[in-house]
TrEMBL record:
Gene3D superfamilies: alpha/beta hydrolase (3.40.50.1820). Residues 219-253 are annotated as: Disordered. GO terms for molecular function: hydrolase activity. Keywords: Hydrolase. Residues 226-253 have a biased composition (Basic and acidic residues). The keyword Membrane does not apply. This is Serine hydrolase domain-containing protein. One of its GO terms (cellular component) is nucleus. Residues 7-206 form the Serine hydrolase domain.
Length: 253
């Protein structure tokens, strides 16, 4: 049997105080769903090494695993008012040389902020003229605009690539207002909300919509999705009948 053709490679950027492997585990739902339809994902480490003692909070609050003494905490930039992102740019460039080209970027929290920041100037950042045409989309989990004024020009006049923004309605670390501020900078933005907090959701119905969005964009669309239809009484009746049939089958075994 021949190997399944790869439709493209997607670069995945973890959150603050996470690393590539931990993000791969926490984003296992979308990683596996994309693999099923032919996409390869690459999870890399941020350039900044952090010690647990350096963190002003429990790392678990950002989705990191702070139970292990050997936790490899990483970041893309420091959480100060004025910070440098050039080390992050350099890491993206190195990953492109090793694993590119990339058809998409996926980011969570700080990684989402970085992914959105580099969308317009991706070719310049990675040093390849073809990189901009190769890059088709970004998926942003709990994303936000970076603060320093010196980086605001990266968003101007707007983010042109289709962007899928996903965030939790109960997120207390990156508020919905901050996520919406980033959404407002995008020409082709699709927003999916989940009833949770600061994490990458793995609900099947949401994963299906995310994969459908990716396929739409890769086929030349802008990612606009149809709203899921509300269930009618007839739909619920059919589901109940199907469930009863399954239970009857089980009882006869």
């Amino acid at each position: 049997m021949s190997a399944k053709a790869i439709k493209g490679t997607i670069l995945c950027l973890h959150g603050f105080a996470q690393n590539g492997p931990t993000f791969s585990a926490k984003a296992s739902g979308i990683r596996k769903a994309l693999k099923k339809v032919g996409y390869h994902t690459i999870f890399i480490n941020g350039p900044i090494e952090l010690a647990a003692a350096d963190l002003p909070f429990a790392a678990s609050s950002l989705g990191a695993d702070d139970k292990s003494e050997e936790s490899n905490y990483r970041g893309w930039f420091y959480t100060t008012e004025d910070y440098e992102v050039q080390p992050a740019f350099d890491a993206i460039k190195d990953s492109y040389k090793e694993h590119g080209p990339f058809v998409g970027l996926i980011g969570f929290s700080q990684g989402a902020g970085l992914a959105a920041l580099i969308m317009n100037d991706f070719a310049k950042i990675v040093g390849s003229e073809s990189a901009d045409e190769e890059l088709k989309f970004g998926i942003i989990y709990s994303g936000f605009k970076v603060k320093p004024e010196k980086y605001q020009h990266y968003y101007q006049p707007s983010i042109k690539k289709p962007m899928l923004h996903i965030y939790g309605e109960l997120d207390t670390l990156v508020s919905s207002d901050r996520s919406q501020a980033l959404v407002d900078l995008c020409d082709f933005a699709t927003v999916l909300k989940h009833p949770g907090g600061h994490y990458v959701p793995n609900q099947k119905d949401l994963l299906k919509r995310e994969v459908a969005w990716v396929e739409n964009v890769m086929n030349g669309g802008t990612g606009q999705l149809e709203e899921p239809k509300e269930k009618t009484e007839e739909d619920e009746k059919k589901e109940l009948e199907k469930l009863n049939e399954e239970m009857d089958k089980l009882s006869t075994k």
